[in-house]
Known about the structure:
There is one protein chain. This protein is an alpha+beta fold. The chain contains 4 helices and 5 strands; from the N terminus they run βααβββαβα. It is globular and about 50 Å long. 21% of the residues are buried. The mean pLDDT is 95.
Amino acid sequence: MVVRRAAEKDIPKIIELLQQVLEIHADIRPDIFISGTTKYDFDEVKEMLSLEERPIYIAADENDNAVGYAMCEIKETPADATNKVKFKQLYIDDLCVDASARGQHVGEALFNHVKEEAKRMGCYEVTLCVWTGNDRAEHFYEKLGMKTKERIMEYII
């Protein structure tokens, strides 16, 4: 397996994986996520491929077929934030491993690649969000050494 930057040829598989991760979220929170949809469409993913601040990394098998992705975004402390230290982070906007490849260390390889890229870019941290109820993902990220930084709470009316 190799982890590399995504290319346009990977977009159909990325869309398929976006569908898989959306269904996980729709099962957990059908009040928020609409089953049968995706977070991004083909054109949006294609646009991201051209943006240096929105890198997408692909884990590819021995035939160079994508089996997982990590969609990232470089974020910086806003210039007008006077109460925070200025730093850069690499935010994992979305990470998915094909259901048929789970348990084969694909997610770990993607995460390790993202960490190396963040280090190369001079980032202070790698961050991501996990939906409450996605216990498998939460345990996976904790196993990789991630810790809770903050929690978003809700009160449904």
